[in-house]
Fold this protein.
Amino acid sequence: MTQYQGEIESVLYTVGDAGITLKELAGILGIHPSALRQLLAQLQADYQAGPGGLTLLSFGERYQLATKARFAPLLHQYFAGHQPNSLSQAALETMAIVAYQQPVTRIEIDAIRGVQSTGALQTLMARQMIKEAGRKDAPGRPILYGTTGYFLDYFGLKDLKDLPDLQDFAGQAFDQHGNLDLFFDQASKENAQVPGAAEPAAATDPTTSATNESAASVSATDDKSAATTSATDDKSAATTSATDDKSASTANATSTNAQQALTQELKETNHESE
């Protein structure tokens, strides 16, 4: 038992109230389900006989780590006097999902958030924001969660129909983490602004600026290329005319001079472009 006790307890603690099936736990530990069943039975007996505050609950093939019933008054006393003043971001996300998707299971909440939500659900249950709303007719009979009357009172709602329409948030920007606070009062933020405060200067979009500079550079290059082409055509025409009127040697000299001038102009154009 000592060999697997730490591993079993670690997994059971992590999964929280949702528990874990015998088959899932056996797969994680890499042992046969029948052997694991015996280990769990021994662990359950040790918890019951020992002075510790934990016990192992089983519901069919699902196992869950919990506190012993005799410590319930102590825990109620703790939660009554140690309620935090605000909800964490994880709790708010979980509560929003429950509010809009209820009744919903923990697995469905986890799928939406992309992370484990057991701790957030426990917090919301302790704060009486959500409650168990039955069990889903599916393998394992997972717990369904829904909001409470205290949830409506906390947010000043008369009915769930008074929840903000999700379409109202379609045009709002998400924060740097991709989150959107469904319970944020936009009006309070607008009222908090100082009257008469100067509007902040519009920030220059670096992407747009870089694009404009690139476009200007391309335009300048095109203009210089067009000018070079025009000069080349004019000089070529002059060279051709000189060839018709002058001797072959004069034509050769003119052509050489034109080539040298064109070469020099191209060098200057290339230098300006750089």
The chain has a mean pLDDT of 73. The domain at 2-69 is CATH 1.10.10.10 (Arc Repressor Mutant, subunit A). Strands lie at 20-21, 54-59, 62-67, 104-105, 130-135, 143-147. Residues 206-245 form the longest helix (40 residues).
